[in-house]
Structures are given as C-alpha cells and as structure tokens.
Write a structure and sequence with these properties.
By secondary structure, the chain is an alpha+beta fold. Mean pLDDT is 76; it is low at 12-21. The protein is elongated. The protein has a domain at 34-116. It is built from 5 helices and 6 strands; from the N terminus they run αββαββββααα. Helices cover 25% and strands 25% of the residues.
Length: 159
C-alpha cells in the first residue's frame, strides 16, 4: 500500500500557475501602511477625569495601481477601496489615577473621508462666535503674577 499524501505533480509550472490564479490578493497588497500617533480625549471610567492621550493608529493608503496577477474580483475590491485609519491601542492608562481603561470601540476604524477637512476646536469656536454676532474675544496679554516677597527681598544673614 502506498502513502496517503497528495498525488505527485509531473509538471510543476502548471501547479504554480494554478495556485497564483486561484489565490485572491490579501487586503494588505492593496494598501501602504504607515504608523502614526493621533491625540484623543477620553474620560477615565474610575476617577471621571478627562485627559488627552496619544493613540497609535495605522494609516492605510490605497496604492496607485493594482498589483500584478490580480483577478477580476481583486480589481473590483481595488476599485471600491478607500483610505482609512485603523486604531492599534485598545486601552490607555489614566494620567490622574494610573488605572488602565478601555477606549470606546465605536471609533476603532476611521475612513479618511470622515476626518479630512474637519475644523479643529479653535476654528469651530471662532465660527460659532462670528455666526452668533458676538465680538470675537481678543486674547488678553499674558500678565505674569508678581513674585512672592520671599523671592524678592534681599538675603540678609547669609554668609
């Protein structure tokens, strides 16, 4: 009785050609990956303090052209593909109490169309005040507080 392995292939070029034509491309073949850190404001569920944390993301940008050896199915996937961000961090450590808490998972994937061109908070506040008719508050010049007397009096008695 012979071994129960797969049948021997007499022409290896046929097997390789069939393997590549039948195999679909991996999603990572359609994108270039670039890590980045983006700020995010989250509230600790234990101490209820809000702080800003640096969250690790991977930006996946669509390649300029389709890789060689792609099937019709792969061409359809490539036509529908869009740039997106994928969050890597699931938990952060609270800056106040030191406990780890989970980041809400509804924002673990962001399509590039969703955040491109969005105004930042300062621009948004200026637009709101301009639309409401309130005069824009002028930034007050920074006035440094006076130093306490213990730092300004002459040091007597020191040798």
């Amino acid at each position: 009785m012979r071994g129960g392995g797969p049948p021997a292939v007499t022409n290896p070029s046929v097997a390789v050609r069939c393997y590549h034509s039948c195999m679909a491309l991996d999603e990572r073949d359609l994108f270039t990956e670039k890590p980045e850190i983006r700020p995010g404001r989250y509230q600790c569920i234990r101490c209820r303090r809000t702080a800003e944390y640096g969250i690790r993301w991977i930006r996946r940008s669509k390649k300029n052209r389709l890789p060689a050896g792609a099937s019709e199915e792969d061409r359809a996937k490539f036509a529908k593909a869009r740039n997106y961000l994928l969050r890597l961090d699931d938990q952060v450590t609270c800056k106040a109490c030191g406990k780890r808490f989970e980041i809400p998972s509804q924002h673990s994937l962001m399509i590039a169309d969703q955040f491109a061109g969005l105004p930042n908070e300062e621009e948004l506040e200026r637009e709101i005040s301009a639309a409401s008719g309130d005069p824009a508050p002028e930034p007050a010049p920074e006035v440094k507080p006076a130093l306490p007397a213990r730092f300004t009096r002459k040091s007597t008695g020191w040798k």
